[in-house]
């Protein structure tokens, strides 16, 4: 049972956020107030920028859509569209809604509007992954608050409500067919004006914003899946800020313009436990023993990554201190077992990783066929279990600041992103214990126990933890270097005046 019953006492940081909006004091340096910031984004949208998909993180990175809660660098909840919250009982939380907030279409933020947005997320098919295994009832409570009731005891309700996939949008965003169109429907300092398919998007400064005024006039975002082209955009000045410059391009750029950001992102080999060769646990152990992580980090990432000791990397410093040492599996001979190894091109390093894995698995006796496509063209087949092995770069705390949601999504029997097709009762039991544990050290220990249960199945072989390389032009000030990939441009980001 949870002991917390008192309203949260806001820290000085929270008070500052309440009074000044999501940003802090304005940068006093001269800036070009009419400048537009140009972005080269890694991946095009997959679902028309609906916030009920991973496209939500683009809306968040552009500061177009906002949530009730935001997380601080330690993953702790802070005020955003909710100014305060309290736990009413084991299953119920009350969130006070910020007053005097306008949506981009001029309508008001109200508790009823919050309820409608959150209910739409709970009824989506598929659900946002932050809601995997979670059942919520959301109702208005008077004219200033909403109540969120969970079926199960859930200490992470505030964290869950920070997920960009639970952004609060205006009524106009929601169509009768269940589709969500975010144009002119958010509450952030930038208003989405144009969605140009998988090519680009345009945003303008929103002068009716409840917080501090943005320091640039707008954002022009281009989708540039090719890593070499993204690097060229930084080199030539075509883009002010560039996402995910490939390691192979980093050495060719002005080192003053690139910045390494340690990421809670793990490069993992997922093995199909339901069909094919890896339905046999012994074959999974042979594959796990064959992986030479150090060579991959050295040769593909040029040392700009960390060798994995588990699913959770150095971005969660507490994980390694709680993790027990586990011996490596013994090498074996796969005796010519046929497997299809797949990955995608959107992250430039992954096809190179696939080449090394093909060599290592072949040496272990597997007969390997490779398949490489763009992510948009391969995700459905991966989720349907059509490959024996799949290489994925996976964010581990993207949604809630807590890795349980990622673990449940990827490894629970009912997980919505279960590429390994894993269904293991010990894993599910460990995930339930972690989900029910109180925040803090108790929860951290339960998470590491769940990680150990997952790794014992060899359904996932973590290889390395990535560091993202972000490019920023010399005249860009305060672009956000966010390990959780939620922010990129905010109210303080600007272009230095000449």
Automatic annotation (TrEMBL):
<feature type="signal peptide">
    <location>
        <begin position="1"/>
        <end position="25"/>
    </location>
</feature>
<dbReference type="GO" id="GO:0043190">
    <property type="term" value="C:ATP-binding cassette (ABC) transporter complex"/>
</dbReference>
<dbReference type="InterPro" id="IPR039424">
    <property type="entry name" value="SBP_5"/>
</dbReference>
<dbReference type="Pfam" id="PF00496">
    <property type="entry name" value="SBP_bac_5"/>
</dbReference>
<keyword id="KW-0732">Signal</keyword>
<feature type="domain" description="Solute-binding protein family 5">
    <location>
        <begin position="77"/>
        <end position="410"/>
    </location>
</feature>
<dbReference type="InterPro" id="IPR030678">
    <property type="entry name" value="Peptide/Ni-bd"/>
</dbReference>
<comment type="similarity">
    <text>Belongs to the bacterial solute-binding protein 5 family.</text>
</comment>
<dbReference type="InterPro" id="IPR023765">
    <property type="entry name" value="SBP_5_CS"/>
</dbReference>
<dbReference type="GO" id="GO:0015833">
    <property type="term" value="P:peptide transport"/>
</dbReference>
<dbReference type="GO" id="GO:0030288">
    <property type="term" value="C:outer membrane-bounded periplasmic space"/>
</dbReference>
<dbReference type="GO" id="GO:1904680">
    <property type="term" value="F:peptide transmembrane transporter activity"/>
</dbReference>
<dbReference type="InterPro" id="IPR000914">
    <property type="entry name" value="SBP_5_dom"/>
</dbReference>
<protein>
    <submittedName>
        <fullName>Peptide/nickel transport system substrate-binding protein</fullName>
    </submittedName>
</protein>
């Amino acid at each position: 049972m949870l002991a917390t019953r008192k309203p949260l006492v806001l820290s000085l940081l929270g008070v500052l956020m309440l009074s000044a909006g999501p940003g802090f004091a304005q940068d006093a340096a001269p800036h070009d107030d009419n400048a537009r910031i140009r972005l080269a984004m890694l991946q095009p949208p997959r679902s028309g920028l609906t916030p009920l998909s991973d496209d939500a993180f683009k809306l968040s990175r552009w500061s177009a859509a906002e949530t009730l809660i935001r997380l601080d660098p330690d993953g702790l909840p802070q005020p955003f569209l909710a100014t305060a919250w309290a736990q009413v009982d084991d299953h119920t939380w009350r969130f006070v809604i910020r007053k005097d907030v306008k949506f981009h279409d001029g309508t008001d933020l109200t508790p009823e509007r919050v309820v409608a947005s959150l209910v739409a997320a709970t009824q989506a098919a598929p659900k946002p992954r932050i809601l995997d295994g979670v059942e919520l009832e959301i109702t208005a409570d008077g004219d200033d608050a909403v109540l969120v009731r969970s079926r199960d005891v859930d200490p992470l309700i505030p964290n869950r409500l920070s997920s960009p996939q639970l952004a609060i949008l205006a009524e106009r965003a929601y169509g009768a067919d269940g589709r969500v169109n975010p144009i002119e429907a958010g509450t952030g300092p930038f208003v989405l004006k144009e969605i140009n398919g998988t090519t680009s998007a345009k945003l303008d400064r929103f002068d009716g914003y409840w917080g501090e005024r943005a320091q640039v006039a707008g954002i022009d975002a281009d989708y540039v899946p090719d890593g070499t082209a993204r690097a060229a955009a930084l080199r030539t000045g075509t883009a002010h800020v560039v996402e995910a410059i490939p390691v192979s391009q980093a050495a060719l750029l002005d080192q003053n313009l690139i910045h390494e950001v340690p990421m809670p992102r793990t490069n993992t080999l997922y093995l199909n436990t339901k069909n094919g060769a890896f339905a046999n646990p012994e074959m999974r152990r042979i594959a796990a023993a064959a992986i030479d992580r150090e060579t991959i980090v050295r040769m593909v990432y040029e040392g700009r990554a960390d060798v994995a000791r588990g699913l959770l990397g150095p971005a969660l410093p507490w994980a390694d201190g709680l993790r027990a040492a586990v011996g490596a599996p013994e090498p074996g001979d796969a005796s010519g077992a046929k497997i299809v190894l797949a990955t995608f091109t959107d992250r430039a390093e992954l096809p190179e990783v696939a080449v090394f894995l093909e060599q290592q698995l072949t040496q272990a006796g597997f007969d390997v066929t490779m398949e490489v496509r763009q992510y948009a063209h391969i995700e459905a087949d991966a989720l349907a279990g059509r490959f024996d092995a799949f290489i994925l770069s996976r964010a581990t705390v993207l949604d809630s600041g807590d890795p349980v949601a990622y673990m449940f999504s990827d490894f629970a029997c009912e997980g919505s992103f279960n590429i390994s097709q894993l269904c293991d009762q010990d894993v599910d039991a460990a995930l339930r214990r972690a989900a029910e544990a109180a925040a803090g050290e108790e929860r951290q220990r339960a998470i590491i126990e769940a990680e150990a249960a997952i790794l014992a199945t060899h359904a996932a072989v973590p290889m390395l933890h990535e560091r993202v390389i972000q490019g920023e032009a010399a005249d860009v000030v305060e672009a956000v270097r966010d390990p959780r990939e939620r922010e990129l441009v905010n109210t303080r980001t600007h272009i230095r005046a000449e």
